[in-house]
Automatic annotation (TrEMBL):
Molecular function via GO: FMN binding; NADP binding; NADPH dehydrogenase activity
Cofactors, names only: FMN
NADH:flavin oxidoreductase/NADH oxidase N-terminal domain location: 4-337
This protein's UniProt keywords: Flavoprotein, FMN, NADP, Oxidoreductase
CDD domains reported in the protein's UniProt record: OYE_YqiM_FMN
Domain of life: Bacteria
Protein name: Oxidoreductase
Amino acid sequence: MVTLFEPLALRGVTLKNRIVVSPMCQYSSVDGFATDWHLVHLGSRAVGGAGLIISEAAAVSPEGRISPDDLGIWKDEHLHMLTRITAFLKSQGSVPGIQLAHAGRKASTYSPWKGEGHVPESEGGWQPVGPSALAFAPTYGTPHALDGPGLQKVIADFRAAAERALAAGFEVIELHAAHGYLLHEFLSPLSNHRTDEYGGTFENRIRLLLEVVAATREVWPAELPLIVRISVTDWTEGGWNADESVQLAAMLKVRGVDMIDCSTGGNVPKAPIPVGPGYQVQFAERIKQETGMLTGAVGLITTPAEAEAILTNGQADVVLLAREFLREPYFPLFAAHDLGVEMPWPVQYERAKPRAHVAAGPR
Ligand SMILES: Cc1cc2nc3c(=O)[nH]c(=O)nc-3n(C[C@H](O)[C@H](O)[C@H](O)COP(=O)(O)O)c2cc1C
């Protein structure tokens, strides 16, 4: 039995395999609208056989975009193209997921190929918001610290975005609480210097995330799964850490969250991250073992054998791949071949399917 190709039931949704397309910003939207690029990009990975495809960070408000070119889901007009995309992904047997996000103090930055750091208002940028008036780095804007009504708006924006995600046909929501974006900024004492009930103690720092989870669960149907992506550690003394992540995961488990997607870092420039093959898998393993929560492992997982080992060793329940999926949209089809699993190819591509005795070839 090859675990990578065992279906996984999450509430009322079944993934046909354990291979997940990790969210990846495409910086190819105008005013938040998905385009043909998104249809082809996500659609290709569905043709390639991924069990779950999680869209890039979709901003819940215009000021929650990382860049002016981010995908958005803050108005009903966004839904038309998103609905086309979810319909296509489903037609290929993939489950469509969406990552809901607010970039916080890392908002209003240039897309990677357009520049670096803060986009000024004269070029379509805006003033970012965050827990405290602390810039991420000198080239970033200094955020405006959110006040009570500002926080209520963030929560309401996530709730409304979840309603829209449902209307667009998504079947999984992933809340982005990682990589130094708004929800992570509240978790970490390095970015959260507040003295009110949203800062200071662990209970206060996790409050915003718990409120966003509750608001999302209010409108997200009980039969549909909810995932939260966290950065398990800031990799920095005095920052958010793995012990706190374990505690948080246990609390999310009883609040309707079905899986923790275990990433790390992003809240501290130049943190000493020991990047290497599967370098974050240990965190998915720890959270799974200590809380019983389902976990996703992500980060430099690039081969079918590595992916299979992570699952059979009980370190995680799914694997998420990002860059490998950019190199190889058909990763699941080839992984099945490599691992000796019979997996149907799209009928249109059937004639290219590698036969059992033929190596899959270079890719
Ligand atoms: C082009 C690109 C865009 C990304 N955008 C997002 C994003 O929108 N949301 C997110 O949580 N992570 C994002 N990431 C991080 C990936 O989801 C993933 O966690 C990371 O790349 C490590 O996995 P990998 O080694 O398989 O690439 C992005 C990564 C890449 C390469």
